[in-house]
Description:
The chain contains seven helices and no strands. It has helices at 3-61, 63-74, 81-106, 112-126, 129-137, 142-156, 164-167. It starts with a helix and ends in a 12-residue tail after the last helix. The relative contact order is 0.10.
Amino acid sequence: MDHQSVAQMLGNYGEFFGAIAVLVTLIYLASQVRQNATQMRLNSFQHATERFSGVIKTICSDPDLMMMWRDGLASFDELPPERQAQFHAYLVDGLTAYQNCQQLADAGVIPEHVAADRKRDMARLFKCTGAKQWRKSLVLEPESLAIMDALIAEFLKDTDAVPLNEGLVFFRKSPHAVA
């Protein structure tokens, strides 16, 4: 075997092993992309659920906020202006968290049942007198108002949802409650 034959044979081996290395690299990269996509879905799922539960956790961790929320669910109109502002902020945060969750479900990032659970939570809120009064108090541009009304109407289609302040004992305003 002459020098040129050896070089050609080594070149052929090099091409063969190079093709295998490229194939192994592509398989590895595909695995990494798949893992990254899975991790992004999990992070989105965690963020969507934590955001919604964070609103509730914040309200329930402070007795003063819990009383404001309970009183607001019973009657937004009877809250003093500073309490109406608090109630408004938490309700808008809940709506935003729901919309984010629904968008993630629509994109196939999180399971649809998670968004359905959040939708049920929103239905339970908007079946409360205070949340209905809150909606009537909003002054928005006509287009924004139409979007809000359509969203609330969608929540209220849930005929099985029990108003939050009827379903949860600690959100009921009892005649014995101390204000």
